[in-house]
Design a protein that fits this description.
86 residues; mainly alpha; 4 helices
């Protein structure tokens, strides 16, 4: 993840994306329980965009940054969680 160049919109898109499968299907990535995100870290992230975004959520949760993102997600500036950066 460290080699990717992120812009603020990427972080919000990652946080707003819904988990597409499993026990937490439909839940925003930012709302996934921390142990679940840590489990992915240990087992390996899925390939592609979802894996990249889960890795980012791991770093956000590890560093206690969730409280900074939540107000941005709830603001009037809604984001499309499935969009990809250009």
């Amino acid at each position: 993840m460290s080699e990717l160049e992120l812009v603020p919109e990427d972080i919000l898109l990652a946080a707003a994306m819904e988990m597409p499968f499993g026990r937490f299907k439909g839940r925003r990535l930012i709302d996934l329980p921390e142990p679940y995100v840590v489990w992915f870290k240990g087992q390996g992230y899925p390939a592609g965009l979802l894996g990249q975004r889960l890795a980012l959520m791991y770093e956000i949760k590890l560093n206690g940054l969730e409280k900074l993102l939540r107000p941005l997600l709830e603001s009037e500036h809604r984001v499309d969680p499935m969009s990809q950066p250009d």
